[in-house]
Amino acid sequence: FEKAFPWLLVGGAALGLILMVVIPNAVFQETSEVQLKAQSDLRLAILYTTGGMIAALGLLETYRKNTNDRTKANADINAALKNQKHQTNVLKEQIRQFDENAFKERKAERRERYTKAVEQLGSQEAPVRMGGVYTLVGLVDEWLEEESIREYEDRLKEGQVIINNLCAYIRSPFTLASHYDELKQDTPSAKGFYQDKVQEFYADKATLDSEADVRLGIIKEIHDRLQGSEKNTPGTWSDFDYNFSGSTFFYSVNLKNSYYKRSINFSGSYYYKEVKFSGSIYEGEVDFSRSIYMEKVIFSKYNSKSHYKKRVDFSESTYCNYAIFEHSTYNASAIFTDSIYMNKANFTNSKYEPHNKNNSEIIDFSLSIYINTVSFEESTYNINVIFYSSLYYKEVYFGPSVNYEHLGLDKSIYYRSVYFNGSCFYKGCMIKNSFFGSCNNNFTYKSEIGDLLDMKYIDLPRTCRFLIQKQKEHIEGKFQEIEKINNKLREVKDPEEKEELLKKLRSLNEELHKWREEVTTVKVDDGAIENTES
Questions:
Q1: Which of 55, 148, 240, 381 is 20 to 30 A from 225, comparing alpha carbons?
Q2: Is the backbone of residue 136 left (phi > 0), alpha (psi -120 to 50) or beta?
């Protein structure tokens, strides 16, 4: 049509001219004035008709041309868009491949740095080991920020491998730590391993101090990342598991105000210096069991409270100095059983409030020995709590406290006074087959269900007895032995001798519990209860 259109216009115009000449002459053959005017009008009409047809053909051609141009333009646009989309996809694929290759390069480079850093940890030079530590710490941060790994858990897996290495370094034995008591002195002692070894003493002292700095560096870097910018909020490393079990800490440990979302394990550890765990939050299970603390240990205090959301285990531990657990909150079982407290122990103002109350949840202080004053005052128990089969050499304060569940105090020996001081009981309180060395006790309490402590004498529950003189002398002798051991532990510098003293301490603990079990297992009848020392 495009090629024929000019011919149509020419043919239409020619046909119009022919018709303008032929039709008027044929129709109006007369030459009168009227006929001539009629011919002229007819020619004009044919001319207008022909012009209209030509104009219509012109409009039609214009429309066709515009339509074709629009179709072509749309086709060109679609082709351009298709090409652009293709180019975009090509570009995206190139970017993806570039990112993938870049990530592979970063991954390979990190693996190389990781391998080198682990090798540095085995260096003889402390600065080199410290360099390895900082490299590993930086790698953990890099993995956590790696956007090429979409799943956060996958980032954690990469970081956890390095965290395990850092924890393993803390757990690794360091031979000179066994001579810590001597090496902490400014000069060699007259007796001991470094007697007449002055140069070796100063060399080893410097080596031990350098190693302490490396390990303190690890603890500090971890600690800094276990705290959020606001109080009691998780840090960037709070999602990792930490295993420090069996570690020997010959340096101060400061992990206060930390936030752990997963498990933390300090079991079987030995602490030469002061320890601070206060103000921390534990969402996962915690294990501090079978540990020995030579100096003060602070798990929580008034201005720095700790919160345990799952099971926590402090069992089979030895505290040679002040042990502070005050102002703590426990939402599951807390196990303190079979422990020895050489100095004061403070559990005041604590809350035991399980999230899921069931028969398996319990607070257990049983089978423990307290050489000095111990306080459980101002505490709230929404869970069964037992203090069974324990020995208290000095005063023990159980109240005032609020007990919403059962309280068990059976088969224990209290060498000095016991104070309840108006505690409130909503359920049972069992204090059977226990022995007391003092009549200066305070068993006053409040109860919602009547008389919980069946008192035959105003100063003693019905099913309990006073220690006779022979029993007092036995306990006095054993506790004096324990105190002597504790004093020697502070003085002795030879590691083998210290180990022997700790074994002897545990042996005395077992011996005392065996004796206590025999004494408190004897059935106590009303008629057999004595209020004398005979």
A1: 148
A2: alpha
Residue 272 to residue 253: CA distance in whole angstroms: 10
Q: Which of 43-57, 114-128, 300-314 has the lowest mean pLDDT?
A: 43-57
Packing angle between helix 33-121 and helix 152-171, nearest 10 degrees?
10
Give the orientation angle of helix 198-224 with respect to helix 152-171, to 10 degrees.
160
- Dihedral sign computed on CA atoms, order 435, 439, 445, 447: positive
User: How far is it, in rounded angstroms, from Cα 146 to Cα 159?
Assistant: 11
Torsion from C-alpha of 123, 129, 134, 136, nearest 10 degrees: 40
Residue 329 backbone dihedrals phi, psi, to 5 degrees: -125, 130
Q: How many whole angstroms separate alpha carbon 338 and alpha carbon 216?
A: 31
Longest CA span, the chain: 172
Whether this model's pTM surpasses 0.85? no
**In terms of DSSP bridges, do strands 402-403 and 380-381 run parallel, antiparallel, or are they unpaired?**
parallel
Average pLDDT of span 180-205: 90
Structure-block tokens of residue 2: 């495009």
Q: What is the reported pLDDT for 223?
A: 97
DSSP state of 298: E
Cα–Cα distance measured from residue 476 to residue 467, given in angstroms and rounded to the nearest whole number: 12
pLDDT digits (tens, 9 = 90+) for 368-405: 999 999 999 999 999 999 999 999 999 999 989 999 88
Q: Look at residues 534, 524, 453, 489 and name the one whose alpha carbon lies nearest to residue 371.
A: 489
User: Mean of the pLDDT values across residues 278-295?
Assistant: 96
Instruction: Enter the DSSP assignment of 472.
Output: H
What is the C-alpha to C-alpha distance for residues 337 and 366, in angstroms, rounded to an integer? Answer: 5
**Angle (CA) 58 63 68, round 5°:** 125
pLDDT above 70: residue 174: yes
With vertex at residue 422, the alpha carbon angle to CA 420 and CA 423, rounded to the nearest 5 degrees, is 70
The string of DSSP letters for 212-238 reads HHHHHHHHHHHHHTTS-SSTT---TTT
